[in-house]
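Dig into what follows:
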Amino acid sequence: MEEHVIVESSFTAPINAPLEKIDIPAWCFSLPDHEYQGCSPAHFAAGATTSPDGKRMSINVEVLGGVPMVQHYVEQVAEKHRLVLDSVSDLWTPTGRTKILVMWELSVKSAGPKKCEFTNRVRSRATPEFLDFLNRQGVPFEVFRTAREPISTAHNRQETPFFAASIERYALAR
């Protein structure tokens, strides 16, 4: 089956804290709702829970381009300096509800004695349900992808330095 990538973007931002103080999974799964909201005007809520198989989850609610989205991020890789989360995310569009797949990868690497570089990578893909949703409306996938790309990329670019600042505060407070 062909993989239908909707958007893939990656941005970096500095963190003024030593690498050994950074723990991305600890930050992510304890991120207070108000701190998540402060990372973007598109962020409405965040919380943490567990999946049915016991993996940690980050639940995020945001509105991108007027489309509310609930992300159910389940940990796939949880290392101190790298966290990979996958979500079957719900979207509420003006023409109905559907689902897409989102991979969120957060990582950090040393950039000096007391500095790090944070990378925020997001990759969204179509589910079969989503492709059917577009087909029922007569919207070609490429048309949707082309319209969605600037919205999602701008959001990632905008939130990345705020996530980095939040991770920095978390690291320095520990």
Q: What stands out?
A: The chain has a mean pLDDT of 96.
